Amino acid sequence: MPTEIGLVVTDLLVENFKDIFDFQYTARLEEELDEIEEGKQTGNEALSDFYAKFAKDLRYAEKHMENIKRMEKPTDEKCELCGAPLVIKWGKHGSFYACSTYDKENPDTCKFTKENPSICPTSIRPTYRRRRRKNTARTAAG
Fold this sequence. Notes:
The protein is of the alpha+beta class. It has two domains: about 5-65; about 75-140, no CATH class. It is about 35% helix and about 25% strand. It has three helices and seven strands, in the order H-H-H-E-E-E-E-E-E-E. The strands form two sheets. It has a four-stranded antiparallel beta sheet, with no helix packed on it. The longest helix has 22 residues, at about 45-65.
């Protein structure tokens, strides 16, 4: 089962690299590989054509792709400390709730966070990140 952060990253990649994730493009790429195998085209020509499109997509993504570390999704929940709305943010272990008033530059802002449990597909129970020794974590059904 894909992780939540994997789904978010996939959505961002598909949205910003439309050429690469287009079925017609990948079908054409298969044809180009066949042409290389048959000697009708060189590998360098195919790579050059690919890189020209990819460089254009990369420039587009640099300007338009949202930074996942700065993404915030509004929620209807309220902060337990200050009453401000909570937002969903993403970190290396998935999503979590955070106070919308948090400001990295201001140490006096509310720093409230709480886990955002997902649902285990097997047991249909919420899952949580469990901390283990040596700063590793695993996901377990609660």
